[in-house]
Amino acid sequence: MPLAPANQSQLIRSIQKDEYYQTFLRNNANEAFQTLAGSKRWLDWRREIELLSDIAYYGLTTFSGYQTLGEEYVNIVQVDPTKRRVPSRARRGLFVLCHAYFPYLVDKVLVCLENELECGQERHSGAGQRRAASGPWWSLELWLRRWMQRAVGLLSEPQRRACVPAVFVLHQGLTLLHRLHATLFYISGSFYHLSKRAAGISYLRVMGLSSDDGTIRSSYRLLGALSLLQLFVTVCLQLNRFRQKQRARQEWKLYRNLRYRNLRYRGLRYRNLRYRDLRYRGLRYRGLRYRNLRYRNLRYRDLRYRGLRYRNLRCRDLRYRNLRCRDLRYRSRVPSSSGLYVRAEF
User: Fold this and answer.
1) Mean pLDDT throughout 52-67?
2) CA dihedral in degrees (269, 271, 277, 283; nearest 10)?
3) Are 86 and 78 in contact (CB under 8 A)?
């Protein structure tokens, strides 16, 4: 029976059928684990359960040398780059690791790296130690967190701030890489997954060429061209958005510096006004004190003048009284027969 390369529609239907059975296996595994261990532990180990489900699915089919349910559904078989033999066990093992385990590992590494960069100095706090001590010693997340702590600890503060947008760009770059690879698949018709391209696994269909095979490939090439155009527009929009974020961040830094300068200017102006106010109050206090002292001096002089005048008047009064007393004494004397004045008695 002649074998021909599988077209895009057959590969897509095979992948959709595999994803359906993978989802069914994941749901059953999640329900079983949640029933046995509880919802809290299921939330902690949900990603690991899905990873084990995918490894079990591809381990029992591809790695064991059998067709997957999707491949059996559309009658396609895996071949190596020579198109003459089935892939070796090493190629199939590489495909299973790259397809199931590698995305999980990359996601864990990026999440841990992003958390460590955002936390900064808080990674050495007690809460971080409690989280690290709460997990088992064989936990992959624990080992990754410790490794990231040592790696980020070697970086300086400017390097950490520069790595934060780099991690974001890496996240977006992986998404765009998958979309670009899907676009190339629509155009060329081979290697829908990056893992199969890395392992060099392609497909041949058991049935011969059909009459509408050329039409299907032309339609998918048109879809690939439109997807490529959409991808180009998306990249331009994301670059523009990234530049706007960078510009907004620079404007915010400039605004923060200007605000600090403004607050500093206001503080200096307030100090100057307060100094002027205190100086004015001091001068005013000195002026009032001078006026008060001058008033006291004038009052003292007035009182002194009044005292002196009072003393003079009193002295005059006493002098007048003395003179009057003398006058009365003189008038009270009468001449005696001997020619002397004697005091008159009545």
Assistant:
1) 93
2) -120
3) yes
Look at residue 346 and tell me whether its pLDDT is greater than 60: no
User: Could you tell me the strand order of the sheet in which 4-5 lies?
Assistant: 4-5, 202-205, 76-79
Q: What is the mean pLDDT of residues 332-344?
A: 51
* Separation between Cα atoms, residue 169 and residue 242, nearest integer Å: 9
Instruction: Please identify which residue in the block is written with the tokens 């029976």.
Output: 1
Q: What is the band of 337 on the pLDDT scale with cuts at 50, 70, 90?
A: low
Burial tier of 78 (Cβ tally within 10 Å: 0-12, 13-18, 19+): buried
Task: Give this prediction's pTM.
Answer: 0.66
Residue 126 has pLDDT above 50, yes or no: no
Q: How far is it, in rounded angstroms, from Cα 116 to Cα 32? A: 34
Measured torsion, CA atoms of residues 307, 313, 314, 315, in degrees rounded to the nearest 10? 110
